[in-house]
Amino acid sequence: MANERVRERGTTVFRPIIYGNTAVVLTPKERELLASPDHTHRWTVAVRSAASAPDSDQVGGADDLSYFIKRVTFKLHDTYPNPSRNIDKAPFELTETGWGEFEIQIRITFVPESGEKAITLYHHLKLHPWTASGEPEIPPLDVAMKLGPVHSWQYDEVVFNDPYHNFLNLMNEHPPTPLPKTKKKPIPFHLANPGSLEASKGGVPEFNTLMIKEECDRLEDARKSIIAEQDRWRQKLIEKEKELERLQKEVDAGA
């Protein structure tokens, strides 16, 4: 039978992924050995499965994604030699050194069996820890070195609607490692709220279903807050329009 798309209504298959980077400060000796001594950090940008392997010191990456991803292209800043870097096998990651933050374009090309077009994601390379105000902080290099790695990761889900039969079978042969239901690992203290109990803990962040639920709850709260704010300003506008109408009538009556 020819390979055709699954036409049953609502047939979808998805895979949770993360994309982002981790960065560490180079030691003075490492900087001396570089061709560009002004570089201050070593960073790795990657596309990985969302789940982390047990007892791993890496964020995500429990699953090999090459069964449905053929290539990941990282488009770096134009100041880098050959800024478009193709990674054609797992792990889909790239390590470089540098001194500045910039936006990285991430193009994911799927295996031919998928029959799907490539997708493009964007990630802002993060070298410095965030402050409580949400702004990046650039501490002295000797201080930053003691803070440990900086992590910046985004959770996403790659969704395939009405997949081809062969591709659906391929995906079903490789179920993703489920995310843990609750947090098992501490988060790096520079990602924690200042003054909290977590602020004194180190470690590698780990994605979990509770984190996703909390993020959905935050988005819903933000949505409700925006609606309430819109209603408040709409009511103010109505009141001002009524006042304007009243004043206009007074002007017309006195004319």
TrEMBL record:
Domains (record comment): The coiled-coil domain is required for assembly into the NuA4 complex.
The keyword Acyltransferase appears for this protein: no
Database matches in CDD domains: YEATS_Yaf9_like
PROSITE patterns in the record: YEATS
Subunit structure: Component of the SWR1 chromatin-remodeling complex and of the NuA4 histone acetyltransferase complex.
GO cellular component, one term: cytoplasm
Compartment(s) where it occurs, according to its Swiss-Prot or TrEMBL record: Nucleus; Cytoplasm
Family: Belongs to the YAF9 family.
Swiss-Prot/TrEMBL keywords: Activator, Chromatin regulator, Coiled coil, Cytoplasm, DNA damage, DNA repair, Nucleus, Transcription, Transcription regulation
Chief location: nucleus
Lineage: Eukaryota, Fungi, Dikarya, Basidiomycota, Agaricomycotina
GO biological process: chromatin organization; DNA repair; regulation of DNA-templated transcription
Domain YEATS, residue spans: 7-174
Superkingdom of the source species: Eukaryota
Gene encoding the protein: YAF9
Entry protein name: Protein AF-9 homolog
General function of this protein: Component of the SWR1 complex which mediates the ATP-dependent exchange of histone H2A for an H2A variant leading to transcriptional regulation of selected genes by chromatin remodeling. Component of the NuA4 histone acetyltransferase complex which is involved in transcriptional activation of selected genes principally by acetylation of nucleosomal histones H4 and H2A. The NuA4 complex is also involved in DNA repair. Yaf9 may also be required for viability in conditions in which the structural integrity of the spindle is compromised.
